[in-house]
Structures are given as structure tokens and as C-alpha cells.
């Protein structure tokens, strides 16, 4: 049991490191490819890869009940989160979005309780709520007293992704971690083909190499490999417990935004990020 927990936490950490580059990569790619290509086109690229894997491995089809769960996963990780975060990154700095994404463990734990039958402790909930309030105050402060459209998009994305995380973590125990995200990609892709096709233009061929690297990172790592590690971690260590690793994401995203985007980080951002992460340390016992 302890061995599974350690392996689960390690896989979860690998997944979070992969995800922490998602917003910086999105911010780099969007100006050259647009929101539709970055938000949905990444899934089309990932679908080509997983389809080849399915053919080589001769993977069997999921059953009807599993397909229903996979549709929930696809709603969040394939459609909702990529599209909404792409929209948000058109107007928000990555460091801003990073703090708000610290709400993900709260959303994940809530849906883990509803969908996975887990029961996080009262201490966990109190600490998570304090962290959530800190994030909302921060977002409102930067928005001069009100949430911006990008903030609202991120908050909706967090709720949808929290549900998908919980559903995918539960389903990984019977279907396998890489199979969950792979099937979700395959299920969602047909709905994206037309809008992605209409958004293609010859001007995209002129995009710089860093934009292409960012797009393929989003497709291969953010959309597929990161979820293989993440869902595998949650299936081994528990959805709510491994989900708390997401509180490291603000620090990683902030660091990557400085390294790759040259963003300036204020002391307020650092202090509030520390408060949020302290909340998870306090509430980690379940």
C-alpha cells in the first residue's frame, strides 16, 4: 500500500511538471496559430499518435459504461480545459493563471467524493477552502475589484477539469491510465475536425520554431503523456491525495513564465502562492 502511494505521488508529480508548462506553451503558440488550433488542434495531433498506438497494440474497445465515463473525461481534458485556458491566456499573464489553477485540488477532491466515493477529512476541506479564497481574492485584486473574462473562463475550466480528473482517476483503475486519456482523445477528436480545418491558414507556416515546439508540446505532452502519468498516479495513490500535488503547480508555472516568457513576478504573487501551498501541507492528512 505504501509502495503504491509513493509510486502514485511520483507519477502525479511528473504529470504536474508536464502540465505546468501548458500555460506558457499556450501563451507562446496562440499569437501565431489562434485559439482554435491551439485549443482543439492539439487534440487532433494527439489523436494521430494514439490511433497508431491502438493499431499496433490491437487495443480492445471499452464497454458502454466505460464509454460514458470517457465522455466525461473528454469533456474536460479534451474540450473544456484546452479551449477555455487558451481563451484565458489571450488576456491574462501566465503567473495570474497559475495562481487560479491552484483551485484544482479543491475541485478534484469534491468530484472525487461525488464520483469516486472518497471521503477527504475536514482538515483537508478547511485548508482547501482557505486556499480557494486566497486565489479568488488575488484574482479580484488584479482585476481592480472584479473578475475578468479570462478569470471566469479559468474558473469554469477548473470545475470541468476537476470532474474529468476524478472520473479519469477512477476509470484508470480498471481501464489503465494511458488508455483513459487515449480513448478520451479519440472520442473527442471527430467533433473538432471541422473547426480545426476551417481555422488552418498558410500564414501559420511562417510561425517561428518556438511556436511550433509549443504546439507540439501541447499535443504530445500536455494532451497525452502528462495525463498518462497523472491518471496512473491517481489510480495508485488515490484521487484526492495525489490531487493535492497540484498545489505545486503555481510555483512551477510562475518559474516557467519567468524563464520562457520573461514575466515579472510581484511579491504579492509569491506570498499568495506560498499561502496556498501551505494550505495543502496543513490539509494533506486524510
Automatic annotation (TrEMBL):
Q: Could you tell me the superkingdom of the organism this chain comes from? A: Bacteria
Q: Do you know which SUPFAM superfamilies this protein is assigned to?
A: Multidrug resistance efflux transporter EmrE
Topology versus the membrane: Multi-pass membrane protein
Entry-linked InterPro entries: AA-Vitamin_Transporters, EamA_dom, EmrE-like
Which regions span the lipid bilayer?
A: 39-57, 69-88, 124-144, 150-168, 180-200, 212-230, 251-283
Annotated ranges, domain EamA: 7-137, 149-281
Which family, according to the similarity comment? Answer: Belongs to the EamA transporter family.
PANTHER family the UniProt entry points to: EAMA DOMAIN-CONTAINING PROTEIN (PTHR32322:SF2), INNER MEMBRANE TRANSPORTER (PTHR32322)
- The identity of this protein, by name, is DMT family transporter
Organism placement in taxonomy: Bacteria, Bacillati, Bacillota, Bacilli, Bacillales
Amino acid at each position: 500500500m505504501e509502495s503504491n502511494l509513493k509510486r502514485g505521488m511520483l507519477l502525479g508529480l511528473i504529470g504536474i511538471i508536464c502540465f505546468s508548462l501548458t500555460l506558457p506553451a499556450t501563451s507562446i503558440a496562440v499569437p501565431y496559430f489562434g485559439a482554435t488550433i491551439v485549443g482543439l488542434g492539439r487534440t487532433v495531433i494527439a489523436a494521430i499518435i494514439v490511433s497508431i498506438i491502438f493499431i499496433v497494440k490491437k487495443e480492445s474497445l471499452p464497454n458502454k459504461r466505460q464509454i460514458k465515463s470517457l465522455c466525461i473525461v473528454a469533456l474536460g481534458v479534451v474540450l473544456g480545459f484546452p479551449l477555455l485556458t487558451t481563451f484565458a491566456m489571450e488576456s491574462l499573464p501566465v503567473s495570474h493563471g497559475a495562481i487560479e489553477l491552484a483551485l484544482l485540488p479543491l475541485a478534484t477532491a469534491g468530484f472525487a467524493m461525488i464520483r469516486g466515493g472518497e471521503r477527504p477529512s475536514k482538515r483537508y476541506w478547511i485548508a482547501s477552502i482557505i486556499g480557494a479564497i486566497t486565489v479568488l481574492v488575488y484574482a479580484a485584486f488584479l482585476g481592480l475589484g472584479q473578475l475578468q473574462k479570462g478569470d471566469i473562463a479559468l474558473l469554469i475550466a477548473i470545475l470541468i477539469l476537476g470532474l474529468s480528473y476524478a472520473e479519469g482517476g477512477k476509470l484508470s483503475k480498471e481501464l489503465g491510465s494511458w488508455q483513459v486519456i487515449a480513448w478520451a482523445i479519440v472520442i473527442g477528436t471527430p467533433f473538432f475536425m471541422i473547426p480545426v480545418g476551417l481555422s488552418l491558414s498558410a500564414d501559420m507556416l511562417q510561425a517561428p520554431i518556438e511556436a511550433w515546439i509549443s504546439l507540439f508540446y501541447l499535443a504530445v505532452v500536455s494532451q497525452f503523456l502528462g495525463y498518462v502519468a497523472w491518471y496512473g498516479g491517481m489510480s495508485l495513490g488515490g484521487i484526492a491525495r495525489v490531487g493535492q500535488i497540484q498545489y505545486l503547480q503555481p510555483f512551477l508555472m510562475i518559474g516557467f513564465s519567468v524563464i520562457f516568457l520573461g514575466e515579472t513576478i510581484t511579491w504579492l504573487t509569491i506570498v499568495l502562492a506560498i499561502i496556498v501551498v501551505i494550505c495543502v501541507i496543513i490539509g494533506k492528512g486524510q
